[in-house]
Amino acid sequence: MKKIKVMLVDDEEEFVTTLSERIKMRNFSSSVAFNGEQALQIVNDQVPDIMILDLKMPGIDGMEVLRRVKKAYPKVQVIILTGHGSEKDKKEALSLGAFGYLQKPVQIDELIRHIVKAHGAVADDT
Description:
The protein has helices spanning 13-25, 36-45, 62-72, 87-95, 108-125; strands at residues 5-9, 29-33, 50-53, 77-82, 100-103. By secondary structure, the protein is α/β, with parallel strands linked by helices. It has a single domain (5-109), classed as 3-Layer(aba) Sandwich (Rossmann fold), CATH 3.40.50. Strands 2-1-3-4-5 form a 5-stranded parallel sheet, sandwiched between helices. Helix 4 links the parallel strand 4 and strand 5 (100-103). The longest helix is centred in the last third of the chain and has 18 residues, at 108-125.
């Protein structure tokens, strides 16, 4: 079975690097981007199965990344993981096609469950 490709997008570099290592330990493939611009460049070269996306980032924010990714790659499942979200943000993200919306801090097991569920949604869609 091929590894689930997860892309982590967050401007908190230490957090995203640590999270990437923990995801790799669970036998997933992981790539990282530290801002929206970088995420959009990387996604064009290596389309992930799942994107874990922060909302509040300098430059292109998470909501705009979500819009562009879902338009260009509708099968990519996007899970919002943010420390600064609101109910309004949650509604907007879900209406734009986000698979899930989680608040930081999140337990790694809960995040893994969401990744596996989101990947199941991709598999069901093919």
